[in-house]
Design a protein that fits this description.
Beta-lactamase, alpha+beta, globular, Lipocalin, 498 residues
């Protein structure tokens, strides 16, 4: 799909670096005007980035933001941190526009991609509070401009707002495509029908409520539903329901991005996305914002969760941050691992941009990081771990593993192509006695797999662990994975190295 990385939008990653090297090497930051005594902590964070895992008994590498921006080919980074109901600090690094040597500042706007879903869910729940929507009724009861086509999967169970927001409606289209400035942009109804767009039509392909199926298309249904019940454009609607009351003055869903805002927008340098892509599928992918505004949004979510918000009642806020299926998803938000401290978060990746925000309601803190560049997610996670370490967060910290020895003949049995959760393709190869795993979420370079036992392997570059499952005859046909809190079930689809 044009303008997007494949699979789960999480995460695709240089000649421009030659021009940027002096700026990145010195890595001067543009500080926010509200910087506080967090300056010392910021310096520790940007000079103490951490890998996902370390080997027990070996030194823990501490990396600088400057060197990791070079490593990941990320020319632009913006970071913000909040605590006690306010943005505590924010910083920009790199060049927002290399043609005029314009630095990234805390006010530089980035595309937030799938983080749009969290904003959309909050706005939709405000309409539930107002009585204009219902979480658990058939959305066809209020849709006017388009209807969810009925089929054998919707005979007894219906598509509801709750199911759309939690990716349990059984709808198709995991990712939506973007369009370059000047190209024709389909209407919302055309996107839903698969007309004049690169996407297939949005349809129900499993019984609603019976399981998690990530669907950007389902959020396009929510977009049309919200417009139908209010008779407002989606950008105006979200501005009134979310941006204005939360003080998010650097956020918009307007598309294409108004030319007046172009000077404030980060330039995408990542090939083949050298140039902005815009999204008519706004609810799942169309947000432009800053890390500071995302922190203001997270503060609003935490206040609602604590019963201190006039925007959303505590009952709805707690529904929003409650697991809605066996997966780690609530209503518009990914959630932390069960049994751990409550954490809400979302990541996103549009053509050239990658971002992540998170919040811990029980401690009143959180952060947001936005980047441009194909390796943005890898860099974001290293920054995130340094923040978690510095502030003593309960999750998101570096893991420690014990290194084991495995016979090379055994390693060879694990090579092949694996499909996890029927969606995520991972390729395991062997080179000079070392296993590698290739997966777009982890960047464009194969990542080393280190043995912790004969069947369990881990990465140091990502919080990923894979368990290969041996059959009675010794062959390997299945594997289980864990990417942070996310559990994955995999099937080997090809035996030989690709």
């Amino acid at each position: 799909m044009r303008g997007l990385p494949a699979s789960v939008k999480l995460l695709v990653f240089a000649a421009f670096l030659v021009a940027l090297c002096p700026a990145i090497a010195s890595l001067t930051s543009d500080k926010s005007t509200n910087a506080t005594d967090g300056d010392a902590k910021v310096e520790k964070i940007i000079n103490g980035l951490l890998p996902a895992a370390a080997v027990k008994g070996q030194p823990v590498p501490r990396m600088t933001l400057a060197e990791r921006m070079k490593y990941y080919n990320v020319p632009e980074v913006s970071i913000a941190f909040f605590k006690n109901g306010r943005v505590d600090w924010s910083r920009g690094y790199g060049l927002a526009d290399k043609t005029i040597n314009k630095p990234v500042t805390p006010d530089t706007v980035f595309q937030a991609a799938s983080i749009s879903k969290s904003i959309t869910a909050f706005a939709a729940l405000r309409l539930v509070q107002q009585g204009k929507l219902d979480l658990d009724e058939d959305v066809n009861q209020r849709l006017v401009s388009w209807k969810v086509p009925d089929n054998e999967f919707t005979k007894t169970e219906k598509v509801t707002l709750r199911r759309l927001l939690s990716h349990t409606a059984g709808t198709t289209v995991p990712s939506v495509g973007g369009y370059k400035a000047g190209e024709y942009m389909p209407t919302t109804v055309q996107v839903l029908n698969g007309e004049r767009t690169s996407n297939e039509p949005v349809r129900v392909v499993q019984v609603p409520g019976k399981g998690f199926r990530y669907s950007g298309g389902g959020y396009v249904v929510v977009q049309q539903l919200m417009m139908d019940v209010t008779s407002k454009s989606f950008p105006a609607l979200v501005h009134d329901l979310v941006f204005e009351p939360l003080g998010m003055t650097h956020s918009t869903f307007e598309t294409p991005l108004p030319k007046a805002l172009w000077p404030k927008a980060a330039q995408p340098y990542d090939e083949p996305h050298n140039g902005w892509f815009f999204y008519s599928a706004l609810a799942p992918a169309g947000l432009w914002t800053t890390p500071s505004d995302l922190c203001l949004f997270a503060i609003g979510v935490e206040k609602a969760h604590d019963g201190q918000s006039k925007l959303l009642p505590q009952s709805l806020a707690r529904e929003m941050l409650t697991y809605q299926s066996d997966e780690i998803y609530g209503l518009g938000f990914a959630l932390g691992q069960r049994g751990h401290a409550l954490r809400f978060w979302h990541s996103g990746a549009n053509g050239g941009y990658q971002s992540l925000f998170e919040g811990y309601p029980d401690i009143g803190e959180g952060s947001a990081v936005m980047t441009d560049g194909a390796g943005g997610l890898g860099l974001i996670l290293e920054i995130q771990r340094a923040i978690a370490e510095e502030y003593g967060w309960p999750d998101g910290r570096m893991e420690t593993h014990t290194l084991a020895q495995v016979d090379p003949a055994t390693l060879r049995m694990y090579t092949g192509v694996y499909l996890f959760n029927e969606l995520f393709r991972m390729v395991v190869t062997l080179d000079n006695g070392q296993l590698y795993l290739q997966y777009g979420v982890f960047g464009d370079k194969p990542q080393k797999l280190f043995p912790e036992s004969e069947t369990r392997f881990f990465m140091t570059s990502a919080p990923f662990v894979i368990d290969f499952q041996r059959e009675a005859d010794g062959s390997v046909k299945k594997a289980k994975g864990r990417n942070g809190p996310e559990e994955l079930e995999g099937q080997k689809t090809a035996e030989a190295n690709p």
